Every structure is written in C-alpha cells, then in structure tokens.
Amino acid sequence: xxxxxxxxxxxxxxxxxxxxxxxxxxxxxxxxxxxxxxxxxxxxxxxxxxxxxxxxxxxxxxxxxxxxxxxxxxxxxxxxxxxxxxxxxxxxxxxxxxxxxxxxxxxxxxxxxxxxxxxxxxxxxxxxxxxxxxxxxxxxxxxxxxxxxxxxxxxxxxxxxxxxxxxxxxxxxxxxxxxxxxxxxxxxxxxxxx
Length: 194
Description:
By secondary structure, the protein is α/β, with parallel strands linked by helices. It is 38% helix and 19% strand. A five-stranded mixed beta sheet has the order 3-2-1-4-5, with helices on both faces. It has a two-stranded antiparallel sheet with strand order 6-7. The N and C termini lie close together (10 Å).
C-alpha cells in the first residue's frame, strides 16, 4: 500500500484574474493537461520509506503504482488521478482508496463535492481536529515556488501532505474513526482500505 500526493507545475489563476509576471498559468483547476506535474510525494508501507518522484523517474512511480495493492491519497480520485493521467501515469481506480471520499461517506455524504454539505473536510481541517497539526503551506502557491526554483520548499510541502494523510490513514486503520473537523464532539466512522 502506498500514499501519494502531487504538486503542479503551472499556477492556477485566482478568481480575481490577477497573474504574477513571469509565472506560467494553466486554464483552471480542471485543466490537468495544462497544469503539468512538478513532483509526486509517496509513502510506501512495504518499505516504510518516503520517496519523491520527478520527471526523470515518473516511470519508477508507475512501477510502484502497478505493484502496489492499494493506492491511497486525499482527494486523489478527483485531483491526483486526472493529473497523473494527463502526464502519462495510469492509476487504477480498482485498487484506489480516497480518504476524503471515505470521510464524506462516513459523515453521510456522497462522493461528489457539494459546497452546501461537503465543505470543511480538507486535509488541514481534519488533521487539526485529530492531531492539532496543520499543513506547512498552501498548495496554490506551490507552482509559483516551483517556477521560482524553490524546489526544496515544494517537495517539503508535498511530503508533509503525504505525512499528514498517513497520520489520518493510520488512525483509520487502527480505530476506524476520526474526529469530525466541523463538530469536535462527533466521531466519524471511516471504512478501511483493507
């Protein structure tokens, strides 16, 4: 079983339409081909190691995906899978586990985001509610940092997201539940990947 997270190469334009000079942009949050892929962070349970994949070794990531029994992430089916596919990496949904979708299901919601019901379950919100730990930055800034040559900062951010996802998944594997980030008195029963 592996956990993975991707960071994009080109920035997503803000709602205000303002663009920073010298920064490349994609067409929006659904323009997976235009986003490009900066890096992939992975935790491999079989080897008990964190790994980073860049353009020069995406084929190694594909081999890892192909050989893993479960591919886990947080919002991976809606975001990371199409991003990978647009960059020639195929991830089978048959052995997929999307922790965000399983949290939504445990809270009584369907698999598709609806702002009226599904908001408030982001990775940071879930980790703050369960471990008092937050993210190290903002994913929307990662492509700007990457284009400025701040590769270490982006890789560090990506791996922290993998680590946070692992903490949540480990809790689900251990006790099958997490604290609801929208209601600190409520626990959510979450289906395990195995």
